[in-house]
Amino acid sequence: MDSLLDGDALGGVIEMSDRYLVIDKEILPDVFEKVMMAKELLRSGKVREVTEATRTVGVSRSTFYKYKDKVFSYSENEAGKKVIISFMLNHMQGVLSNVLQVISANGGNILTINQEIPINHIASVNITIESNGLTKSLDELIGELDSILGVQSVSVLAME
Fold this sequence. Notes:
Blueprint: E1 3-7, E2 12-16, H1 30-44, H2 50-57, H3 61-67, E3 82-90, H4 95-105, E4 109-115, E5 122-130, H5 138-146, E6 151-159
Helix pairs in contact: 1-2
């Protein structure tokens, strides 16, 4: 559900349409970290059952089940393994090839390319990349892609 924030200090109303937030765990109740610890115990095989994992970290089973599919860790090593990048490209020879070359030259491994038929000389293209091997930040890559002749727009649609 989208929420609206009163934006008096910003001169209006801001609509929050993003589904996910990155929040410093220091401001959250410790229950979320305990759920993450229990998930890690199960994932690593250190414990076999939810009851054992929840008892070990000190959280109830009901709390674990309530949050287990809603709480995820964020780490530089795991964040952004797969990224879907959306483009609007001019329908001219070599533009997509240049985009792919820039992604590859910067260590991005291309997994999928989905291109729509150009309408009014603009094609919508979504490219999924594996970003673990990027030699620059995702923001820097997006900036470089945006500067390619024939790229009308570029944005990140999703990250895993």
